[in-house]
Amino acid sequence: MACHSLAHRGEELLGVVRGPDVPDVPWVGGIPLLHPWANRLSAFNYAFDGEEIALPAGDIYIEEHGLPIHGLRSAVAGWTVVSSGEDRLVGAREFAGVPAFPFDHRLEVAAELSETTLTLTTTLTAGPRPVPLSFGYHPYFQLPGVPRAQWEIMLPVADRLLLDEKLVPTGERVAAGDLDGPLGERLFDDGFTLEERRGPFVLQGGGRRIELAFEAGYPYAQVFAPANADVVCFEPMTAPADALRHSPEAVAPGESFSARFSVSVSSSPRAFAS
């Protein structure tokens, strides 16, 4: 499940990371869903609801440090269209009997498009067992025709999650400080908590402004700006990286949880507030 294109004034705003060292996986471009966990896990097993689960090698992605990342390969396939129209599309998938995530549930994603805004609402409905909650999305934004040095970003974040040498959160946090301003040569692969009273994440330049608003259900963000591609990612996350291994929040049996974020595009960017 992913959004593969978001165009404005005839230009594509969703980028792709390409290169000889980039794996051929579905989460290197567009706006992919990462399920049942987002970002890295620190090992190939986890425990939940009294059960120890091992992650099978054939159903996971491996990142540069040799760790599992971005959920299960099998979560990408098997989706069906529930309803569709000119400005709304709903897809769903039943997850049942999955050895690597033996917590049966239904996942439904509604994509709604207005003149300026794409809104994605994801609803997880638990089966007979509680379902650990750690999914997220990975939007790849770009400003076509604008040099990266001229890109400006706004990050409404509160704390930065401290990471170990493999980029896994240690459990400690520090104040993020003011990160707004030119992206320039800055690189990011960092997790954050969000400001209590926050505006949107912003990428702007060249007479265009992209805003990503964390509207509901996403208390964490990963910001990713690599050296090998002119993209920046503001990633909505229901839990921090590695949460699946550390008593994550859960959806109770038979209950539903919904999370929502939106992407808006404007031709008249506002100046950043000082």
Short description:
The protein is mainly β and 274 residues long. It has strands at residues 2-3, 7-8, 11-12, 31-34, 45-48, 51-54, 60-62, 68-72, 80-84, 88-95, 105-113, 117-126, 131-132, 136-137, 152-154, 157-163, 169-175, 181-182, 188-194, 201-205, 208-216, 220-225, 233-237, 250-251, 256-266.
How does this model look, in words?
With 274 residues, this protein is mainly beta. The protein is 0% helix and 46% strand. It is globular, with a radius of gyration of 18 Å. The model has no long low-confidence stretch (mean pLDDT 90).
Give the secondary structure arrangement, pairings included.
Layout: E1 2-3, E2 7-8, E3 11-12, E4 31-34, E5 45-48, E6 51-54, E7 60-62, E8 68-72, E9 80-84, E10 88-95, E11 105-113, E12 117-126, E13 131-132, E14 136-137, E15 152-154, E16 157-163, E17 169-175, E18 181-182, E19 188-194, E20 201-205, E21 208-216, E22 220-225, E23 233-237, E24 250-251, E25 256-266
Antiparallel strand pairs: 1-4, 2-3, 4-14, 5-6, 7-8, 9-10, 10-11, 11-12, 12-25, 13-24, 15-18, 15-20, 16-17, 16-19, 19-22, 20-21, 21-25, 22-23
Number of helices, where a helix is a run of at least 4 consecutive DSSP H or I residues: 0
Overall, the morphology is globular
Low-confidence stretches: none
Class based on secondary structure composition and strand pairing = mainly beta
Mean pLDDT: 90
> Percent range for helical residues?
under 10%
